[in-house]
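JOB MANIFEST
job_type = single_chain_structure
chain_count = 1
residues = 608
[input]
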Amino acid sequence: MLCDLATFAGAAWLASYLLERPIAQGGWSALALAAVVRVWAFVRLGMYRSALRYSGIHTLVISVAGVALGSIAAVAGSWFGGHGGVLELGRAFLVLEALLAVGVTGGARMAARMALERCWGKAGTRVLIYGAGDLGEVTLRILRRHPQWRPIGFLDDDRHKHGQVIHGRPVLGGLQDLDRVCNEHTPQAVFVAINNLDPQVANAICRACMSRDLRVTVVRGVDGEGGSLRLRDLKLEDLLPRPSRQLDPAPVRAMLAGRTVLVTGAGGSIGSELCAQIALAAATELVVVDHSEFNLYAVEGALKERFPQVRVVPILDNLSDPDRLRSLFARHRPAVVFHAAAYKHVPMVEANPFAAVINNVLSFRNLLAAADHVGVERLVLISTDKAVRPTNVMGATKRVCELLMQNWPTRHTRMCSVRFGNVLGSSGSVVPRFLEQIEAGGPVTVTHPDITRYFMLIPEAVALVLAAGSMADHGEIFILDMGEPVRIADMARKLIFLAGKHPDEIKVAYTGLRPGEKLYEELLLGESERGTAVPGITVGKPTLLPFPRLANQIEALIGHCRERELAGFTRTLRDVVPEWTPSEQFAAVFSGELPAVESRAQFQAASA
């Protein structure tokens, strides 16, 4: 306040000197009144509570308003005081004095901010901002207030913006100009300030910055009125080449609202997200089934805390007892069933084929029988792209489940299957394993340099599963559009970069394809497709078989598993799924080169 009072006196003296108009005693009295009113206005408008580092247009507005009120008070005081006061000095004096007062009070604060930014900027991290739009402009303003950052300019792919200057920082070019910009300005980091970041753009940024060892940070928005940026690292899900979708929630809500819904495998990654989205669709009761006590405990607690209005019933069961399962259905009468329970880890299932068939096939058969017996309206099977021309037992068992679903002689229940690929963040996903290997310093192990997989986010996959289930008539295999396949080796290198390491620091080692593993996955078995009303979902042509024969084959397959008779198991599974291409050990049994043995260890011993 004292500085501002001195400033006002100095502005009055300078205006008087420049205009050669001396100020009489009455004039100084009026100017003193003006100074008091101006300081009062500054107090009321918050000038003295504003931090210098955040001075801006708002500071200048307060300065103009306060100075104007003071000038008006000085004129009014001179007029009503009966003496000449500032009126004798003339309008030129009043205008010049006011401009000088605004320039010094507001300008001094802006100058202090600029001095702080210049002082801080010399030692901060040199940052390029990708995106010269509104979010980029806000990002620049906020970064300039923090000493750890030194924004040096913008990149933007809109050529019309190239050469423009925003708050003193130029738009240096587009992403294709990054080499030149790096040579001329030596940036150390890139802040991506784009709303709704497109995966193709994210991949291009990631590739460009990986080769130049530039850290990438995504600006998600601003907290408060320009207070601080919401930042996060670039994530793998940003890079997935998947189409954007807008799904109509009405059909799903019509299917689930006010209903009892049963979810098997509810404690898994897909099952738990299914439960959450079903609760959001206003289901009244959720019967959650899992054979893992801890997973069931975790999902029950999470659902009760998040959705207290939904009745959650935990059932610890593996679906192997048909009588117990039928009693469960009769007690709770679910209207809709989602079957997400399965053994799905390819190498583990390949080493334990009998347990896989019992868990995946027998349990699903029991579920179908119980659902049809009590008149469940709708049943949705979660399948996999590995069921298409399977090269492993896991994929073959899921194909058996698809055939059972399509050919079951249902009396009441509409059944369908939804087939999709890998989901990021699911249990057993390759991504957590890669991250653990990166944290340990490598190497990151990939089975083959050319292996590819489809990937989707868990919430996205589950939303499409619910949408497909709402369209079910009977027997459809709905196929989700997974976008473009991803090379696993490229994913590993991107994860190394996203973890803050240079791709050359950690080695990617190739270990060879595991038993039953494909180089690439398919979503169709060569059958014709038809579209649906939901973008990203198509329907495969059903495979219709005589059910009595299929039922006998499956019963024989289960019998071989109970007897642990590998040769019969192999031949029967091949009869049910003729497109199954067995791995080397199973092929040896199938051709008669190996005897009927019971474990993979015996496989290896017999092969040796």
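[summary]
Confidence is low (pLDDT under 50) at residues 596-600, 603-608.
The chain has 21 helices and 22 strands.
exit_status = 0
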